[in-house]
Amino acid sequence: MSFIACGMVHAQQHNTLTAQEKAQGWQLLFDGSSLSGWHSYLAKAPGKDWKVSDGAILLQKQRSDPQADFQDLVTDAEFGNFDLKLSWKMSPCADSGVMFYVHESPKYQNTYETGPEMQIADLACTKPDSRVLYERSGDLFDLISSDVEWVNEAGQWNDFEIIADHGHVQFFQNGHKVIDTQLWNEDWKRLVARTKFKAWPDFATFREGHISLQATEDKGVTPIRLWFRDIKIRKL
Q1: Buried (b) or exposed (e) across 94-115, using 16+ Cβ within 10 A?
Q2: What are the angstrom distances between the C-alpha of 87 and each of 55, 204, 227, 230?
């Protein structure tokens, strides 16, 4: 009994780093209590629909809200080679994603014009995304689909990990590797050229950029809700 109690006492709190993680170079991107270090894309501060609730970043929006209120959230800092981990959950049928290498400039109206995306979608009912290859949760959105969809149903927490190391990109969903690819080589360029991203010549060309949490999709039961926590990154 004492061993079990001790283990419970020493369970890691959310939005914290262990001594080992600190020694390994991990840093928190969310402190559990504020949106410090984040802002909405092309804005100075987070939009009104972003807030902190119960130790998580919460997006809560109505479809009628002005886009400025729910514009995608991006980190103040930029990252090149990194290992990123975070947890998320959603209200039923919602749709989102985690983007990286986002280049923030008035030249680009949206984060996805430059940033590749690890897709977030409900297991069962995000239409059409959860039923379309390349658009299911864990996919490299519209580019590479995972073999198996290791995602939980709406309302349950999921763990994402994105490792980007000199163009070698790996996605992990709930501990399972779902994507393993190489950016910027000729195969990658041919892949992009076959998709809608060919319309944006700077898509996935930057080798450093912001991390982004997507909020601009309008799928889901209103009010649309997304939660993020335990967001941490280690430079490689």
Answers
A1: bbbbbbbbbbbeeebebbbbbb
A2: 12, 24, 8, 6
Q: What share of the chain is helix, strand, coil (3-state, %, to 5)?
A: 15, 35, 50
Nearest to 227 by CA among 53, 61, 23: 53
pTM of model > 0.85: yes
* Joined tokens for residue 24: 């390994």
User: Distances from the Cα of 158 to the Cαs of 86, 161, 192, 229, in angstroms?
Assistant: 8, 10, 28, 10
Question: Which residue in 183, 182, 179, 200 sits closest to 137, CA to CA?
Answer: 179
pLDDT digits (tens, 9 = 90+) for 67-104: 999 999 999 999 999 999 999 999 998 899 999 999 99
Residues in the chain: 236
* CA of residue 179 relative to chain centroid, distance: 14
3-state secondary structure of 2: helix
Give 191's DSSP letter: H
Q: Which domains does the chain have, with CATH numbers?
A: 15-235 (2.60.120.560)
What's the pLDDT tens digit per position in 189-211?
999 999 999 999 999 999 999 99
Cα 102 to chain center, whole Å?
Answer: 12
The strand order across the sheet containing 73-75 reads 38-40, 73-75, 210-213, 95-102, 117-121
**What distances in angstroms separate CA 5 from CA 1, 2, 17, one per listed residue?**
6, 5, 21
Please report the beta strands in the chain, taking only residues with DSSP state E, as ranges in sequence order: 26-28, 38-40, 50-53, 56-61, 73-75, 82-90, 95-102, 117-121, 158-165, 168-173, 176-182, 210-213, 224-235
Position of tokens 């977030």? Answer: 120
